[in-house]
Each structure stands twice: as C-alpha cells, then as structure tokens.
Amino acid sequence: MKLDLGNPAWVTTLPATRAVASDAPVAACAFSSNGATVGFGLGDGQVRLLSADVKQPASAVAEPVHKGAVLSLIGDPAGDGFVSSGDDGRLLRLALDGSATEIANQKGKWIDKLAAHRATGAVAASVGKMALVVDKAGEIKEFGPHPSTVAGLDFSKDGGRIAAAHYGGVTVWSIGAVTLPPKPLRWTGSHVALKWSTDGKFIATGTQENDIHVWRVAQSTDMRMQGYPAKVKSLSWSADARWLYTSSQPVFTAWPFAGKGPEGKPPLQFGEEGAGLITVVAAHPTAEYVAGGYDSGELQVGDIKTRRSAVLKMSDDSSITCLAWSPEGTHLAAGTDDGKMLLIDLRR
C-alpha cells in the first residue's frame, strides 16, 4: 500500500469511510485474521461485527455477549473469529456469526488485557495478579501471582514466552516446551502498558511516572525515556522494530532502535499537532506508516519516511479509544468514547 501524504489531492480527498453509532463507548477494536471482518467491543457487553468492505451494509446489533463491559477484543489467532474478555470474568471465542464459546470463567474477577500469537494460536489474558495462557487446543496454564494487577501482556516473537507488566517492573515467563524460571526485569513504580518489540530484542513499558522504560531482553539492561506530559498508555513498534511509537504527545513520537538504540538521542517527532494529546497509537503492520488517535477525537495517519501526516477525522471532543490495522494494512478501524465505530479503506 502506498499513501502519498505529500500529495495535496490525497490529503484533501478523504478515503472511503463507514461510521456506525452505538449507545455505549467503544473499548476495543480488532480485525479477524483474514482481514474480512472488523470487531468492536462495547461498554454494554456487545461485540459488533462488521464487514471490512465499506460498501456492504452494517450488520444488525447482536445481543450482548458479556454481562457488563467488554474490556478487550483481539482477532482469534486460531481462526477467523475473535476473542473477547469482560468485567464479568469471562473469556470468549466468538465466531463470525456472533455465536460465543466460553474459554474460561473467572467469576468475580476482571479479564482486561489480551494478547495473541498468530503462529502458535495461543492467547494470553490477565486476571488480577495472574496471567493465563490458552493454547490452540484450549489447555489453560496460569502464571503468577505477580506483585500487583497485571497491567500489560505480550508474547515474544517466537511465542515461547510472555511478558507481564506490574508494579516494580516486568516478569518474563517461559511457556514453551522448555520451562525456565521466571525472569524479572525490575524498575520501581507502576507499569501501565507493555509491548515486546517485533524483533524480540526489547520490552517497553509505559509507567505511572509519565515516562517509558525499555529493557534489552538478552542482557537485562534498561533505559528510561522521560518528558511526557501524561502517562504513556499506548505503545507500538514498527514492523521492522526500528521505531517505538508512543502516545501522550501532541504529535507522532518515535524513539529510534536501529544501531545503538536511543541512548543519548531525542525522539523523532513529526506530523500535524493535533488539538490535544495522542491517546492511542498503532504502527502499520508492514509499511512505514503509523496511526494516532487524539483525546480530542482527531485521527491522523503519518509517514515516518517523509515526516508527513494527514488528518482522517477532525476533532469532535470524543476521545479515540482504540485503533486497529487490517493484516494487510489497507484498512484502519477506530472507536471513540461516545460510541462511534469507524472503518476506513485507505486504498486509492
């Protein structure tokens, strides 16, 4: 896909867009593994499934699948449906016809963070101080307890480990055939987001202290990047792991990880300054683009190569709560705090 953000015609002619309204805030959005369907998890327990073809009519609203709010939604790595979690303690596998199969039930607890590994078909979920890993066959393993509630989860590149963020740092667990002792990566304070780099070399977290922390996994050495006006709750690595994008700035902010890494270097900042701060950021799955949603409702897509960006949605005072690229990177989904579900076809 080629986005010519330097071409005035591209910038002024908006892509094909579908907008669907709901009565509940959008908590999460994701594409199915084949890219044909996009799902939105809502605060009233519904998961709304739409065709990724913006010319197709929107599907009917389904009955709520969670008795409470949907807290997380991901594409099912073991199929073409989705996996959802909620504050009712249920972990569900959702088929494309909307039917739900219960994977796990942690009654009285919240399951609020999910991660998937496509190659192995495994799903990781946070339940309080514990982390669950469900393999492709449905077997569940528990890891923990951690010092506090798990605030972020992600798989290693090969799927043989998971990293869990919590108070005091990160714990890396071996989940493959070879079982190793848990590996602590320590840093005092609360860690509120986590992403493992796409090349497997780094683990990054956002912290309660308005900064980010990054560890080199092999050496267990770490670095701290400061200067944010708010907590960094969204992190995204570029497909080639050369850049780490972060939220909580008025423009796209990317830390360089090629060569010797970011020590002693400022982040690269580019794009149009939005009317507020970026709340969620999502790197393109294959190319050098990045999407950013603002607390003002503005939505931009940027090109780190040309240092340009284009506004896809203007501010409307309703914060962008989630972003998701389709697997091929041709479509972008976004949800908002006032219940708008957006699907944008970026092909020209």
What would you note in describing this structure?
The protein has 348 residues and is an all-beta fold. It has a single domain, classed as 7 Propeller (Methylamine Dehydrogenase, Chain H), CATH 2.130.10. The chain contains one helix and 31 strands. The strands form eight sheets. A four-stranded antiparallel β-sheet has the order 1-31-30-29, with no helix packed on it. β7 and β8 (100-105) form a beta hairpin. The longest helix has 5 residues, at 8-12. The protein is globular, with a radius of gyration of 19 Å. The model has no long low-confidence stretch (mean pLDDT 92).
Cα(first) to Cα(last) distance is: 9 Å
Given this structure, which CATH class is correct?
A: Mainly Beta
What is the number of strand segments? 31
CATH homologous superfamily caption: YVTN repeat-like/Quinoprotein amine dehydrogenase
Morphology call: globular
Write the layout of secondary structure elements.
Blueprint: H1 8-12, E1 16-21, E2 26-31, E3 37-42, E4 47-51, E5 70-75, E6 82-86, E7 90-94, E8 100-105, E9 111-117, E10 122-127, E11 130-134, E12 140-143, E13 152-155, E14 161-166, E15 169-174, E16 183-186, E17 191-196, E18 202-207, E19 212-216, E20 221-225, E21 235-237, E22 243-246, E23 252-256, E24 268-270, E25 278-283, E26 289-294, E27 299-303, E28 308-313, E29 320-325, E30 331-336, E31 340-345
TL;DR?
The protein is mainly β and 348 residues long. It is built from one helix and 31 strands.
Index terms:
about 350 residues, mainly beta, Methylamine Dehydrogenase, Chain H, four-stranded antiparallel β-sheet, 1 helix, about 45% strand, globular
